[in-house]
Structure formats: structure tokens, C-alpha cells
Amino acid sequence: MPRIEEWDWDKEDMDTALNGALLYGRFEVVKRIGLDSVRDDVTGLLNQHFIYPNHEVIELLITAGADVSKPSPHVIDSVFSSFERSLNTSFAENPTRTEEALRCMEILGSNGVHWSVPNKYRLFRLRRTLTRLPLYQALRYLQRIANSRIMEQSVFEELMRTPKMRQILN
User: Considering the entire predicted model, what is its pTM?
Assistant: First the structure.
């Protein structure tokens, strides 16, 4: 029987201190260990799922040579999951998590990473999270997401297609 505190991830994801530091967004630890484009698969490291995405870690991976031309959905999904968790009032996290997720979106988007084929459930969760916010706050976040260019236009249109989402824009 699995223990309650066990996370649902592949144990191989935690095979090195570097992987663990990346998974939890520990920039100082990643910096201290160092990234080596010969030793480390920096593209694979960028394309993993992050429990706590960190914009400095993502920038470091991109600077180290991670290929952003074909991103894994894991990196985008983890950033949006973190964003949603930070806004969900039943899991009130540190408010800096919201800003951190938005910064990750901006860095990924400015480096050409685009969310082009979203999971319908992911869009539903994002939409639900945004519609529960005060209108001004939801509009402010939507504007930052759109300006980040993390979403292709068709994905943003799909996000905004419901009456509740269109109400935010009005």
C-alpha cells in the first residue's frame, strides 16, 4: 500500500541533486552545482515537470543551451499548474508564487515557447481559476499571459470562448 506522503513521480526524476534542485526551483543550488552542456542534457532538464517552476532556473537552462524549438508539454503544464495553485484560495500559497509563474511564462514566451495544443482539462482549470478572481485581477493576469506570448492566438481564443471569460474582457 502506498504511503500518503509519497509523491506521484518517477523515482528516476530525483536521481541527482541537480534534478532535485531543478524540480523544486532551487536556483542557488542549481547555480552552485552548475550546468554543463556536455555532462547535462539541458534540453531534457528544461522539458521536465517542475513542482515549483523558477524563472531564474528556466533562464539558466535556456542560457546553457536548452533547445526551446520543441518544448515538452511538461514545462508549460507545470508553470500553469503553479499559477493556478497560487491563486486557488483553498490552497493559499505565498503570493510570490503567482508572480514567479507569470515570470516563467514571460521568459518561456520570449524565447519562442508557445502553448499550441493544450489539454482541454488544463484550459478548463485555468478558465475556472480566472473566473473565480475579482474582475480587475483576472484581467490583469490575462493581459500578462497574452503579452508573454506563451499561448498561440488560437489557444487564447479557446480560453476566452465562454461567456464568463468574455465578461472579464467587457
Answer: 0.85
